[in-house]
UniProtKB/TrEMBL annotation:
Organism superkingdom: Bacteria
Keyword 4Fe-4S included in the entry's annotation: no
Organism: Roseovarius lutimaris
CDD domains per record: QOR2
Gene Ontology cellular-component annotations: cytosol
MF (Gene Ontology): mRNA 3'-UTR AU-rich region binding; NADPH binding; quinone reductase (NADPH) activity
InterPro entries reported in the protein's UniProt record: ADH-like_C, ADH-like_N, ER, GroES-like_sf, NAD(P)-bd_dom_sf, QOR-like
Keyword annotations of the record: NADP, Oxidoreductase
Family matches, as Pfam families: ADH_N, ADH_zinc_N
Name of the protein: NADPH2:quinone reductase
Gene3D superfamilies the record matches: Medium-chain alcohol dehydrogenases, catalytic domain, NAD(P)-binding Rossmann-like Domain
Signal peptide: none
Residue stretches making up the Enoyl reductase (ER) domain: 10-321
Length: 323
């Protein structure tokens, strides 16, 4: 079997495409042959060392595949089942792996493998952000940074399905057009406009009750200045670098604001929470309310190039690695 491994943190070039040996699945595990693997910005945090891992390590938290062997004690899955996952454990960048059976979800016939690999982590992320971290409701107006990314395009559709008005930010006219084609009501080019001022213009000076910010340090002030009093900043990623040295007094000065830094793993820590999240995701995708488009594909062995393009902002929407 082949898998992507890295011995030390660093740039994309630290990843190596290596031969691996795969043991028989242990109790509670199944052996899964991957058919498609999701690429996520989260993967770059682990590879770079921003999120430290015991080394050497694999990469990837999201994939789809077929069960090839079942360990003792597993009754929920059988050989031949199509399954997917989006909440680790890390090691999805591989042709095959052993996985805890209780962290896998059976794929409905209506969802193809490459679509599943592109939607599990990003879709579950959109779901917990919109339905749990801050429960949006019909009539709300929200701000979503990097709206043309994989999570953003899913979240826009889901939010519109819930009756929410979405303001998004992007960096190019092409990405703005893409976001609008997925239902984003207003798109702000943050390289050309003052985001907070534009948000105020679009909300009659009120600001928004919630900002979803996966960018981090670069957008922190714009996010805070876009919020209405008692508003919530949901900082769920750090594509531009982590927020550092934050003075909580700013929250008081800007309107008794709330700041939270959630993670998917916390929201799906229990098996019941995981499957509830996945059930909601499958429902909105099968209904057509949320459409998943794979805009880029790379061979698994070309993971270095995939990471270079992702970090170089050359990708839009979802990207899949093919083993």
């Amino acid at each position: 079997m082949k898998a992507i491994k890295f011995q030390k943190p660093g740039g994309p070039e630290v990843m190596q495409y290596e031969d691996i040996n795969l043991d028989a699945p242990e109790q509670g595990q199944v052996r899964l042959r991957h058919t498609a693997i999701g690429l996520n910005y989260l993967d770059t945090y682990y590879r770079s060392g921003a999120y430290p891992l015991p080394l050497p390590s694999g990469l990837g938290s999201e994939a789809a595949g077929v069960v090839e062997a079942v360990g003792s004690g597993v009754t929920s899955l059988k050989v031949g089942d199509r399954v997917a996952y989006g909440a680790g454990p890390i090691g999805a960048y591989s042709q095959a792996r052993n996985m805890p059976a209780n962290r896998l979800s059976k794929l409905p016939d209506a969802i193809k493998d490459n679509i599943a690999a592109a939607m599990m982590l990003k879709g579950m992320t959109a779901r917990y952000l919109l339905r749990e971290t801050y429960k949006v409701k019909a009539g709300d107006t929200i701000l979503w940074h990097a709206v043309a990314g994989g999570v953003g395009l899913i979240a826009v559709q889901w939010a519109k399905h819930l009756g929410v008005r979405v303001i998004g930010t992007t960096s190019t006219p092409e990405k703005a057009a893409l976001a609008k084609s997925f239902g984003c009501d207003e798109v702000i080019d943050y390289t050309q406009e003052n985001v907070a001022e534009r948000v105020r213009d679009l909300t009659e000076g009120k600001g928004v009750p919630v900002v979803y910010d996966g960018v981090g340090q670069a957008t922190l002030n714009a996010s805070l200045d876009s919020l209405s009093p008692f508003g919530t900043l949901v900082s769920f990623g750090s594509a531009s670098g982590p927020v550092k040295g934050f003075d909580t007094g700013v929250l008081a000065a800007k309107g008794s604001l709330y700041l939270t830094r959630p993670s998917l793993n916390t929201y799906v820590a229990s098996d019941a929470a995981l499957q509830a999240n996945v059930a909601d995701l499958f429902e909105v995708v099968i209904s057509g309310a949320v459409k998943i488009e794979v805009n880029q594909t790379y061979a698994l062995g070309d993971a270095v190039k995939a990471h270079q393009d992702l970090e170089g902002r050359k990708t839009t929407g979802s990207t899949v690695l093919l083993p």
